[in-house]
Specification:
10 helices, globular
């Protein structure tokens, strides 16, 4: 029987995960440490890929780690108080917060790094597959957006097989959301005007991070 206390704890976890996910770390890092606003740089996105283009490797790594923690910590909290269903629900709440942040008028990032962090916490082998697919795609094409969508899609079977059906359902839900958040990138990919990610070179005018 589900008690009122259990419902209150679950509600607090989901709401807390959403607002934790909503913290715009990309904007915080760019303003506090670089005196710049990522929303006015490059693609205007507050994620790690635009941070790499605009702030260099140090800024990108900081944003990647912080955004990844937004996905990983809710999973760990969910497992501490419940099971995989609660953990995956908390992870998805964090991604929703990242993509639709109330601190940014319900705008935000595209959820990739937050999803990556959640995947690592759910199943580190699946996290390795995510990273491998993303790196291979970006190395072959130069497009971070394509790598992000393919890596997210790869998590549907990877999480299902490595971590179980609830995690696979999470993988599907997060992949659908991430593809939706990349709809403008998809249009640019089809038009041949998508921006290449400077993954293996420094940002012009800035030293390696």
């Amino acid at each position: 029987m589900i008690t009122g206390r259990a419902i209150a704890i679950l509600t607090a976890l989901l709401v807390g995960s959403f607002f934790f996910g909503a913290i715009p770390f990309g904007l915080v890092v760019s303003r506090v440490f670089f005196r710049r606003d990522l929303r006015n740089e490059g693609s205007g996105n507050i994620g790690a890929a635009n941070a790499l283009r605009s702030l260099g490797r140090t800024g990108a790594i900081a944003v990647l780690v912080l955004d990844g923690l937004k996905g990983a910590l809710p999973v760990l909290a969910g497992r501490a108080i419940g099971d995989d269903d609660i953990a995956t629900a908390a992870a998805f709440a964090a991604i929703l917060g990242h993509c639709f942040s109330p601190f940014l008028n319900f705008h935000g990032g595209k959820g990739v790094a937050t999803n990556f962090g959640a995947v690592i916490a759910l199943s580190w082998p699946a996290g390795g597959i995510f990273a491998a697919v993303w790196l291979a795609t970006v190395a072959a094409t130069g497009f971070s957006s394509l790598g992000s969508m393919l890596a997210s899609a790869a998590m549907v079977p990877a999480l299902w097989l490595l971590a179980g059906p609830p995690d696979g359902v999470y993988g599907l839900a997060s992949a659908v959301l991430i593809v939706y958040m990349h709809r403008a990138n998809i249009r640019r990919l089809l038009a041949g005007s998508e921006t290449v990610l400077p993954l293996f070179r420094t940002v012009k005018g800035r030293p390696p991070g």
